[in-house]
Every structure is written in C-alpha cells, then in structure tokens.
Amino acid sequence: MNKTVSLEDHKLKKAARRGFREWRRFFPGPPDLDEHTRIRDLSDPLLLFLCEDIPKSRVLVYDLLMGVYGLGSGYEFESLSPDQVGKLLDPFFLLTDQFRFECLRRLGWAYPSPASALPLIDLVLQIRERIPVDFLGTPELTPAHPAYPLLKKPALLEQAVFLRRHLPEAVREFRERIQREEK
Predict the structure, then answer these.
(1) I need a surface site. Which of 8, 17, 148, 151 has the fewest CB within 10 A?
(2) Residue 15 and residue 183: Cα distance in Å, rounded?
(3) What per-residue string of b and e applies to 34-43 under the rule 16 or more CB within 10 Å gives b?
C-alpha cells in the first residue's frame, strides 16, 4: 500500500535532521529531537547548555540555524560571507533569548513565552521568513521572581530591559538547581 507523504512534512523532517545533528551528538538519548520538538520539550541539561554563553553552545545554536536553512554546519559559521553572517545574527539572538526565557519559566520566574509552544524548526523558519514574530517579545515576570518587588508597572520596553538584566542570575540559579537535582 502506498503511503502519501506531505512535501511540507518531508521538508520539516529533513530540516530537523540537519538542524539537530550536532545536538544529538552532544546530548544523546531522550527526548528525541525532531520536527515536533518545542523549546519546552528540551531537557534541563540541554536547555542550560543552550543558555550558557560559551563557544560550544553558540556553535549548537548556529548549527541548528544553518542546518535548518541548508547552509552547512555551525562549525562553518565563520567561513560564511558577511552578508550570510548578518542574516543569521538576528535569528541567533532571538532564539537564545527564547532559551533563556524558558529557563526563567522553569524557575517559576516568568510566564510561558508564546514561542515555547512552537516546534523549534517552525520557529527558526518563521524567524528567517520574517513571518510576524511580534509574539517573540519578552514574557511577563511572575511574583516569584526575586526582583519582582522592584518592578513597578513599567512600560513594556522597561520590563524587557529589566528582564534581560536578570537573565544571568536566572541561568546561574537554573544551573545550581540542576546540580542539586543531580546529587
């Protein structure tokens, strides 16, 4: 019996295979990374690794972007033309923000970002195609955030600055939580 396969589904599967190639090597095992994987599906250790600002984590994010866009691997990022690099920087920063916002959510410090419900591959494609990504704004902080009492109904821009200022603290706290759970 012949099975009908959607061309769009095939493209998404192929993009996911390319985009998650290095991720699987660094973090083998569950959860399976495929075209349906959302940011909120990532394991805590993988999410923490993506939130850290270290060369290997940047390579994994570049690898996802370049794999999905069919540009090669993240290790080839520096060999791209300046124009290609420029087109990857916005998606890189938008995506790393979303990983850090998910870190905030897991700590109970922020409400879920709408982007956390989208499959990562779709999110990467939407960012590239400039499909309205207004929903990628900063999430709202919860009263559980340690600095919440300092927040006095600011304008959205002020809240975004406030939230980003506290991201390093969130990543540090998330790392400590994971280390406590591993003991």
Answers:
(1) 8
(2) 37
(3) ebebbbebbe
